[in-house]
Amino acid sequence: MNISSAAKKALIPVEREIMFQPVEHLYQLNNQGKVIIHLKGNTDSVNIKYMQDNLISTHNHPEKSYYNNFLSTSDIICAIKLRNREVRAITQDGYCHLAEIPEMDFFEKFNCQCTLIRYKDLFKKEGYSWSLIRKMKKEIEKAYGIKFRTILLPKN
Ligand SMILES: [Zn+2]
Fold this sequence. Notes:
This protein is α+β, with helices and mostly antiparallel strands. The chain contains 4 helices and 6 strands; from the N terminus they run H-E-E-E-H-E-E-H-H-E. It has one domain (5-152). The protein has helices at 5-18, 73-81, 106-126, 130-144, and strands at 25-29, 35-40, 56-61, 86-91, 95-100, 147-152. Strands 2-1-3-4-5-6 form a 6-stranded mixed beta sheet, with helices on both faces. Helix 2 (73-81) packs antiparallel against helix 3 and helix 3 packs antiparallel against helix 4. The protein is globular, with a radius of gyration of 15 Å. It starts with a helix and ends with a strand. The structure holds zinc ion (ZN). Residues 59, 61, 72, 75, 89 line the site of zinc ion.
């Protein structure tokens, strides 16, 4: 487990709040559960310029499309760049798609981002499929220790 129980508890009301928002909201919390950053974007992105390092990030995916039902390659690339402990995306079905990011050195970060960019291009070329998403997750789980999970948001 990468994040404290205080942070985990603090994420619940934040994620329930943003779950049905029509545009993306991004929150960053520290490991004590304090909200540090709140950014509002459009239907499919948030300007990441104001995001900070070393925090826990969560955001909603407002559009109910197939490819929105998991963390995007851009979500994960950004999380690695900013050394997020954890990155989470909430979908309107009440699920949270998360990745726990371990400590990575410069070369691991670089290589992992290259792998993700390769998959990003593949998704663009071949479209999204569960088998390709699964393959990507397996590959970066194995090589870099990033852990992917999907959880049902607790009711309260
Ligand atoms: Zn996202």
